[in-house]
Amino acid sequence: MKVYAIVLASGIGKRVGIDIPKQFLKISGKTVLEHSIEIFENSDAIDVIIAVVHGSFVNFCKKIFQRNNYKKIRKILIGGATRQESSRIGIEAIGEKEAKILVHDAVRPLLSDKIVTACIAALDKYDAVDVAIPTADTIIEVDESMDVADIPAREFLMRGQTPQAFKLSVIRHAHEFAMKAPDLHVTDDCGLVKAFNLAKIHVIEGDETNVKITYPIDIFAADKLFQLKRLPSSDANLTQLAGKVLVVFGASSGIGKSIHQLARKHGARVCNFSRSSGTDVRKKAAIGKALKSVCDSEGRIDFVVNTAGTLKLGELLTRSEEDIRAEVETNYFGCVNIALESHRYLKQTGGMLLFFTSSSYTRGRALYSIYSSTKAAIVNLTQALAEEWSADGIRINVINPTRTATPMRSANFGEEPKESLLSPEFVAEKSLATLLQDYTGQVIDVSKHSQPQK
């Protein structure tokens, strides 16, 4: 029996507080819609995808789908005025007498393949399947005056998610009956099946991470969940670096030196540049000359990593303009210069640019005013370039290590307990693992919690 996924992407909800429909927001380097489509595109259990989109965005969606070369999308349909109508449009487009159908909200981009597979398998026994998770909150029912009318027992309440899965004949009949009952109000397809008592609806357990993007906070939550979901593991296969050409700026000590050593150990061709060897990241021409020399000798550049940075503590009023300018030029303009000069080479290879930030980027700290602000700027630069360069096939991410045992840190803070610091070797391992991932626009947190204890 053929399996169809109907992805509903025709909403223009305003609760998220932005000017574009939420399915076109970018998270982790791709639109929410792309993430949702790719769940089914990459699933071995799905045969056909039908996208139901808003009429004003048909051409925009077609361009997205063509750019990604999705193989399973067979139809792009214009949705209706309501979710129910859009679902019916998708179902009516299926010409077969019987099939397995999954109906999914495009604004749930973190659906797991495990749930997809479970829904399809459940249709061997049931005609309708819902996905839900237990509620951790007490649910109250209120009346028109906002007074509590009832407090149902929490152990029998769950929060519904999508996809919902059906035998085609069952959900088709549900929509046919609904068209003859205009006063019926339900919020999803299972509600229709239940309203007309067409089948027993089986529930399989969903996932807390299968979030629906509805409010502004959901955007930040989803972005963080993508990061956690895709964070490179400690046992990443770094042998995939063999034969790759890696350029490291700031490799004379600390994390940069460890990246160089570990990458070479796994067979990468590593070229190092630093101010001590005559390449100052503050000078764009010097960066260009360095990268050209690598490409001329190696024939390509797969990865560019910048660990160059400087930290000088002190209250802003006590620092000279020259001192401030030097820190900004190294920490921020160094990244801008490297980005500008790296683009042409990374576009040729579909490579990755990797920067480094600091845990202080989330909130400026006293005595760190320049350092913290430049590190915040690097995060914003990374996220912006990830969008600008996605069409060029370039990935760009930023590593955010907590306190690390580097010469720069010891020069500013003196001797600290070793057990309180990350090792540069561990940060290097995570950094190289990141280079082998397919995501872009991510801040990769590396902390003591993820470092194996000796």
Whole-number tally of structural domains: 2
Strand order of the largest sheet: 5-4-1-6-10-7-11
Strand-and-helix sequence, N→C? Answer: EEEHEHEHEHEEEEHHEHEHEHEHEHEHHE
Helix content: 25-40%
What's the story with the biggest beta sheet?
A: 7 strands, mixed
The number of distinct helices, counting runs of at least 4 residues, comes to 13
CATH structural fold name of the largest domain:
Spore Coat Polysaccharide Biosynthesis Protein SpsA, Chain A
Question: What Rg, in angstroms, do the CA atoms define?
Answer: 26 Å
Query: What is the fourth-level CATH superfamily of the largest domain?
Result: Spore Coat Polysaccharide Biosynthesis Protein SpsA, Chain A
Total DSSP E strands: 17
CATH architecture call of the largest domain: Alpha-Beta Complex
The assigned structural class equals alpha/beta
Can you give a write-up of this model?
Helices cover 37% and strands 19% of the residues. It has 454 residues and is an alpha/beta fold. The chain has two domains: 3-229, Spore Coat Polysaccharide Biosynthesis Protein SpsA, Chain A; 234-450, Rossmann fold, CATH 3.40.50. Strands 5-4-1-6-10-7-11 form a seven-stranded mixed β-sheet, sandwiched between helices. The protein has a six-stranded parallel β-sheet with strand order 13-12-14-15-16-17, with helices on both faces. A two-stranded antiparallel sheet has the order 2-3. Strand 15 (352-356), helix 11 and strand 16 form a beta-alpha-beta unit. The longest helix has 29 residues, at 321-349.
Task: Describe how the helices and strands are arranged.
Blueprint: E1 3-9, E2 26-27, E3 30-31, H1 32-41, E4 48-53, H2 58-68, E5 73-78, H3 83-92, E6 100-105, H4 113-122, E7 128-134, E8 141-142, E9 148-150, E10 158-167, H5 168-179, H6 189-195, E11 201-205, H7 216-230, E12 245-249, H8 254-265, E13 269-273, H9 284-298, E14 303-306, H10 321-349, E15 352-356, H11 369-388, E16 395-401, H12 407-413, H13 424-435, E17 443-446
Parallel strand pairs: 1-4, 1-6, 4-5, 7-11, 12-13, 12-14, 14-15, 15-16, 16-17
Antiparallel strand pairs: 2-3, 6-10, 7-10, 8-9
Helix pairs in contact: 3-5, 5-6, 8-13, 9-10, 10-11
